């Protein structure tokens, strides 16, 4: 595919927030990227334009049938002033897997990455530099055809927006309390749980809200069939260290193939630690806890990188893990992975992509 | 709640399509209704305005997390020039049930109905009058806050748009071929299957597309746990007549509480026919078919009212039902229910709401 990405620079630049005000996903940069799709014509008109509202017919399919996919990754500014992306090729590959599941036309992954680099070049001043901050990147596709029939759309928009985000851990990595959800279900085999699509997140809001009210920061989902097997946390995959071995749920079709998960598995293997990707029940976790062999638990995801789990609430029981402290392994993995992402140490080949100097 | 619905009339009226060009959900009327929600302020500013595109920040939650609900109902023009709605109170009640599941603030059902009547009054010339045509009404709510955190939105829009639609059966009621889906799953107990929310429809697109390619018009979903029990068809509930009795899946939490379903059950009871709302497996349907006791099958929903099923495809077998013809009961129910909806015969109290003459 040949294409030319046009760039229309914004005439007025926004005021940038201070690093300590950032939070998550509240501020957006001066530009965004758009690519249109029309049936018969394919994807066309790639362009970087000033960040602006989008205008859609009220009958646009995204409003009614949720036909959409998205991704999330980060750009980091290094101490020596380089700008690094972490495994962006994996995000665009996953976007296309989500597309296939949602009957959305395939995207040219090279074009998408190229578009991201162009957009980042234009808005690079927005990438914050304080410890722990980064630029969150949100590529997404929405169905825009104005038609109420339930069928795949004939029109789409692929967009990339950028949001400078604060440090996930203001005061250093620390553990979270997680509520094991036995009532609500997020996804089931045969469904869309392994796609990064809007409806999965809408489906999790209620449980998330109820868990928050009880003082838990996120929900740990169980499988929809037996309500026994561990799936994933709200927006993280999950790992358990039992008796020196690390166990994480296998990619079973109903959980997301997390890029942090994949990277952590690789790092663990390099460290010579046994990793088992398999079905794991809450009962097994509970038993290990009772026997004192549940050494650590942690979540993995782009937002927090590693999130140690200090407490699991399951069936009216509180399982305190590692005295509610960050485990040694979780701490080490966090340190290693963030150091790779920030270019402080070398990671496996191809993990880090540097933005070419403009 | 006290409120005043303002009306801003469109200065230019669109050309109306001819009745035979209508199709489904392709044309929209001259006006629409909007109501805004802001946290702290509640629902506010109800207004009928010219039909127009809506403008949203690219970070609006609807684009990323699919927090949304919708409804579908119809207005009919009777032979003697009245305009009738069928059980609209049920739609707004169901909208609020969906809201509760999706963590969307409750809507004032009276205001919603009032808004619909005002909008219909303004756009009543759009209601077609040929046999089988109607005005399809689409109330919906979308999350509009521009924030990427996965949490319920602090801002929403409730809107109603109207679309004149053609006859579902150009040449009289006739049976459809349905594909029983054994791979993909639409919803599972504990999920959002009983809410009318965008993600459920996105989740069904792929299976629907594959069934279409095989020559089937819709998919019959099975339960997500055992993949044995019958749930519902794409956008219809489903009924089977076996040995003189009528059986339909019970409201189990993962199927929609269809308003046509509810009405059909009531009509069947009035006709003295036994109706069982219970779990029913495909195996049972298959056995009944083998034994010759599966007399009829049909779907129920706002779009087609009654859709006789002439063929079910299950596990490489074609089950032909009633020689692929419309069954006597399905035909009679269609005749009765459409006659009630068109004001030709009297239905149960409260089913039909007439638009006050303006
Ligand atoms: C449901 C879900 N699981 C897992 C993850 C972690 O994936 P990744 O490591 O690619 O960010 C995410 C976040 O992206 C997610 O939304
Ligand atoms: C999933 C689903 N089931 C059933 C129905 C039938 O419901 P109703 O009779 O209220 O139109 C619909 C259509 O609204 C639907 O979308």
TrEMBL record, chains A, B:
Name of the protein described by the UniProt record: Branched-chain-amino-acid aminotransferase
Database matches in InterPro entries: Aminotrans_IV, Aminotrans_IV_CS, Aminotransferase-like, B_amino_transII, BCAT-like_C, BCAT-like_N, BCAT_family
Organism placement in taxonomy: Bacteria, Bacillati, Bacillota, Bacilli, Bacillales
EC primary class: transferase
Modified residues (N6-(pyridoxal phosphate)lysine): 196
PROSITE patterns xref list: AA_TRANSFER_CLASS_4 (PS00770)
Example GO molecular function: L-isoleucine-2-oxoglutarate transaminase activity
PANTHER family referenced in this protein's UniProt entry, alphabetically: BRANCHED-CHAIN-AMINO-ACID AMINOTRANSFERASE, SUBGROUP IIII AMINOTRANSFERASE
Catalyzed reactions: L-isoleucine + 2-oxoglutarate = (S)-3-methyl-2-oxopentanoate + L-glutamate; L-leucine + 2-oxoglutarate = 4-methyl-2-oxopentanoate + L-glutamate; L-valine + 2-oxoglutarate = 3-methyl-2-oxobutanoate + L-glutamate
Cofactor or coenzyme needed: pyridoxal 5'-phosphate
EC numbers, comma separated: 2.6.1.42
Keyword Transferase carried by entry: yes
Alphabetized CDD domains for the sequence: BCAT_beta_family
Pathway noted in the entry: Amino-acid biosynthesis; L-leucine biosynthesis; L-leucine from 3-methyl-2-oxobutanoate: step 4/4; Amino-acid biosynthesis; L-isoleucine biosynthesis; L-isoleucine from 2-oxobutanoate: step 4/4; Amino-acid biosynthesis; L-valine biosynthesis; L-valine from pyruvate: step 4/4
């Amino acid at each position: 595919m040949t294409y030319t990405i046009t760039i229309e620079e914004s005439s007025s630049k926004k005021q940038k927030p201070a690093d300590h005000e950032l939070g998550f996903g509240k501020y957006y940069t001066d530009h965004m990227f758009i690519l249109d799709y029309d049936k018969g014509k394919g994807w066309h008109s790639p362009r970087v334009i000033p960040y602006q509202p989008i205008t859609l017919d009220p009958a646009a399919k995204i409003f009614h049938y949720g036909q959409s996919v998205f991704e999330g990754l980060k750009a980091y500014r290094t101490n020596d002033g380089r700008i690094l992306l972490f495994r962006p090729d994996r995000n665009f590959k996953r976007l296309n897997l989500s597309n296939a599941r949602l009957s959305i036309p395939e995207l040219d992954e090279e074009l998408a990455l190229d578009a991201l680099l162009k957009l980042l070049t234009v808005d690079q001043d927005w990438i914050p530099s304080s410890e722990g901050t980064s630029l969150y990147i949100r590529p997404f596709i929405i169905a825009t055809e104005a038609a109420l029939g339930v069928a795949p759309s004939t029109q789409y928009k692929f967009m990339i927006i950028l949001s400078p985000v604060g440090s996930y851990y203001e005061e250093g990595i620390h553990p979270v309390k997680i509520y094991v959800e036995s009532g609500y279900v997020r996804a089931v085999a045969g469904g869309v749980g392994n796609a990064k699509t809007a409806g999965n997140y809408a489906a999790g809001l209620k449980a998330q809200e109820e868990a928050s009210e009880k003082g838990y920061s996120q929900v740990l989902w169980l499988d929809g069939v037996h309500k026994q097997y561990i799936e994933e946390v709200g927006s993280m995959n999950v790992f358990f260290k039992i008796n020196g071995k690390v166990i994480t749920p296998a990619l079973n079709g109903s959980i997301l193939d997390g890029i942090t998960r994949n990277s952590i598995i690789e790092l663990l293997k390099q460290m010579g630690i046994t990793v088992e990707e398999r079905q794991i029940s809450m009962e097994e976790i509970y038993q290990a806890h009772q026997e004192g062999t549940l050494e650590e638990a942690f979540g993995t995801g782009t937002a927090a990188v590693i999130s140690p789990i200090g407490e699991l609430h399951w069936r009216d029981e509180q399982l305190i893990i590692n005295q509610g402290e960050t485990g040694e392994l979780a701490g080490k993995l966090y340190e290693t992975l963030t150091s790779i992402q920030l270019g402080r140490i070398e990671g496996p080949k191809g993990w880090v992509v540097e933005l070419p100097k403009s």
